Amino acid sequence: MSGGPYNYSYIFKYIIIGDMGVGKSCLLHQFTEKKFMADCPHTIGVEFGTRIVEVSGQKIKLQIWDTAGQERFRAVTRSYYRGAAGALMVYDITRRSTYNHLSSWLTDARNLTNPNTVIFLIGNKSDLEGQRDVTYQEAKQFADENGLLFMEASAKTGDNVEDVFIETAKKIYQNIQDGNVDLNAADTGVQLKNTTAPADRKQTQQQKQDGCNC
Amino acid sequence: MAEGGPPRGATGTGGGGGLGEKETWELFSNWVCCVCVVTFDLELGQALETVIPSDYKLSDTEKSNICYLAFPDSNSGCMGDTLFHIRIRCTGSGTGGTDLRPTNHHYGAPLVLMPDPAYYYGFVYFRQVKDSDIRRGYFQKSVVLLTRLPYITFFNFIIQRIAPEYFTHGLASLEAACGNMNQWPPPRPGQQLHLPILGQIIYVRLPTKSDKPAARDGEGPVIKKSSSVVVIPSVHDLNLHQALQPVLNNFEMIWELVITNEPIVVMGPSPTLCANTVQALVSLLHPLKYASDFRPFFTIHDSEFKHYTTRTQAPPRVILGVTNPFFTKTLDHWPHVIKLGEISSSNPGTEESRPHQRSRSPGDLSDTRPGVFSRYKPFLQKDKTFARLVISNKTPPGKRPMEVQNVMVKKHALELTTSFIIPLERYLASLMPLKRDVSPWRPPPQLKPFDSELFLKGMEGAGPHLTSRVKGNWTGLYQ
């Protein structure tokens, strides 16, 4: 079991939220496939993607739910927030309206996730500097005031895309290390690996405990 | 996403062309033909309101069957939510999807889990609630998932997951669920599959034909502490103990009726109970596949109602599950009737299930006590040890958990079936030409004819009595 590409110790659940057309699916696609999708159809409800990343020497599988921005799916997508360990909240730096709606997305995220959920604000389309409609400083200030992590990124060039996913994972892992996340509690969005093989699970738990003690 | 599968499985956004080709339903159709919403229209009666994918082609007969079978036969007793499954004959081409194309996804699957080319399985979630805004005062709607895969437990879970969401959030939710299913990897036997559905990941492994009956059999879906993951230990295993409770006392006889392909009607108070019991009867033959038709839930509106209930011919060799009391008259010429009572979990009622010798007088037909009504004289004797162990498990010291009871019932059925089949296999093998006789320079060797006399004679030395503790006239059963 050890060393293989499918070996990982944790599963983190992410959701990606934000207005229609800000590039949520493209960010996910860039992260999982390392490619930019020029023609991306509207997301129906929720799409799903996974990738294994490494944080502090731990392999972590990210299960990412990419929600539809369309208003008609809003009620549906709300039910996906539950149990998310990380929420990526995306706006488009070239469209102020998508930025103005952030408070509504943030309210949903705060109300529907648990207090330890890491929320990362992403200003997408940073490659379109000429059409910029929201300054970096303004968004940075909004993030600081609300205790959010923040970065600008580009799903097109791939700039910072890797970082936002990994920084979020680092923060979640940090929360686990600090004892802020109870691994036995429901809906933390964090799981120890191997829900199918109890023996493995025990082993992983053992490793985990050892890790904590030292 | 398949563990150990192609790299895309571990890193992709769902594979199959990814997000760019969502309009193809290729991945979806590996699992599901279509999802329908059936509503009660005051003008039209039951009507198909929605079909996803919208271009999936159903014939008129299929549509009518889906509509009528999607609602319980008598709605009065079904307030709230009702879950059951149906089986209907394919009459259309089904060409809206790609589900008829030959596929090797199922290579290595057990026979009983192969897709059924001639039938649809429909998993129905029916909701009936009071709603004063509607003219008749009731909201009545069903979500039906149609598939050719007999993964009973699995799809029962899926429909329970997607239908209530639909009733709460509307069509957008059903589209989202179908979108998720259109990201699923193909149903390959033996692989651990991770299937996203409405914010949860289902972990499931499809069995292969070389699997040994596992100790975990018969458990329901396990919801892990983390609500984002559900483990379904088995896609098709039913709780046989529960489904067959009213007839456990006649277990060997029931098994004989099924393996000899006798016409059986199951009459029960709800489609849920009927469907489970009919499915349980059919599964008694595992690993053999029940080759005749069976209908977990059958109504007078089924397009084959006339054909199956005619009195001009002997009853068809099928198993039907019915709830409409009308069938007690229509099918009173059927030789074997299983009646189900209301099953209450607190009282595993078995004392009523003494074999009833069914009489033709109408007075006895209205007898609603659960049990088997049949004039059939079983060839095999009862296995008293089995009966004592499984049925009289009522006294507190002998109280075994349901799962264990279920495994015991399943094991007993498996033992009967394999004991029955081993002598046949052995004899058939002896009819095959020897390898040394097969040669390109000689005419193809002939199979020896099946000589039933000879076969039965061989039984003395190699009969089922060697592998089964059930005594009785096995020879008579073969004849």
Topology:
The complex is a heterodimer of chains A (214) and B (479).
Chain A: E1 10-18, H1 24-33, E2 46-55, E3 58-67, H2 74-78, E4 86-92, H3 96-100, H4 102-112, E5 118-124, H5 136-145, E6 149-152, H6 161-177, E7 190-192, H7 198-213
Parallel strand pairs in A: 1-3, 1-4, 4-5, 5-6
Antiparallel strand pairs in A: 1-7, 2-3
Chain B: H1 7-11, H2 26-31, E1 34-41, E2 45-52, H3 60-69, E3 80-89, E4 119-130, E5 138-147, H4 152-169, H5 171-181, E6 192-197, E7 200-205, E8 222-223, E9 229-232, H6 240-243, H7 251-259, E10 264-267, H8 271-283, E11 294-295, H9 305-309, E12 319-322, H10 326-330, E13 336-339, H11 362-365, E14 371-374, H12 384-391, H13 402-431, H14 452-462, H15 474-478
Parallel strand pairs in B: 7-9, 10-12, 10-13, 11-12
Antiparallel strand pairs in B: 1-2, 1-5, 3-4, 4-5, 6-7, 8-9, 13-14
Catalytic activity (chain A): GTP + H2O = GDP + phosphate + H(+)
Cofactor (chain A): Mg(2+)
Family (chain A): Belongs to the small GTPase superfamily. Rab family.
Features:
heterodimer; A: 214 residues; alpha/beta; Rossmann fold; 7 strands; B: alpha/beta; five-stranded antiparallel beta sheet; five-stranded mixed beta sheet; 14 strands; 30% helix; disordered N terminus
What would you say this structure looks like, in words?
The complex is a heterodimer of chains A (214) and B (479). By secondary structure, chain A is of the alpha/beta class. In chain A, 35% of the residues lie in helices and 23% in strands. In chain A, a hairpin with a 2-residue loop joins strand 2 and strand 3. In chain A, strands 1, 2, 3, 4, 5, 6 and 7 form a seven-stranded mixed sheet that branches. Chain B has 479 residues and is of the alpha/beta class. Chain B is built from 15 helices and 14 strands. Chain B has a five-stranded antiparallel sheet. Chain B has a five-stranded mixed sheet with strand order 11-12-10-13-14, covered by helices on one side. In chain B, helix 4 packs antiparallel against helix 5. Classes of the chains: A alpha/beta (214), B alpha/beta (479). Chain B: Belongs to the DENND6 family.
